[in-house]
Amino acid sequence: MEAEYRAAALAVRDLLARAGDDPTVLGAGEVTHADVRACLLNLEATYLVRMFAVFEEALRDVRRVVYLKAGTIHAYSLIQQCAARQGVRFDDLDNAHQVRDYRNTIVHGGDATPVPLPQARQWLCKFFGWMPPKW
User: Is the pLDDT score of 135 beyond 80?
Assistant: First the structure.
């Protein structure tokens, strides 16, 4: 997912550069320079939301398949349950919640500390590394 983000950022920066030389390239997409600049500005946050969604769904699979628990559960409780069952270290649990908090800020507003995409990937992968190897 991180590589997709880098590819998208490269493409958007390239489009901005091309549009600077020839503004007509934006006409086919019915977008403005401001739209493309906003896209670039929000791109990392968009990919972070997507990354967290993949992480959350994988934890839901672990909960359903390994712990035999079904039903709706909020992301906070899901992370807590999985951490408790697997003995996740507090630092790894706290880092996963920092990513969740930042994701919530992106989606719902708020003031959580931003987590750069590479850091989010590292923290979420480390947390998920505590999950059972086969599920």
Answer: no
- What does the DSSP 8-state code read for residue 73? -
Confidence band, pLDDT 50/70/90 cuts, at residue 1: confident
73 residue type, one letter: I
124, two tokens: 């979420």
pTM above 0.85, yes or no: yes
Neighbours of 125 (CB within 10 A): 11
73 CB contacts (<8 Å, ≥6 apart)? 60, 63, 81
Residue 46 tokens read as 């968009």
Tokens of 107: 């989606």
Of 81, 121, 83, the closest CA to residue 99 belongs to 121
Tokens encoding 94: 């706290």
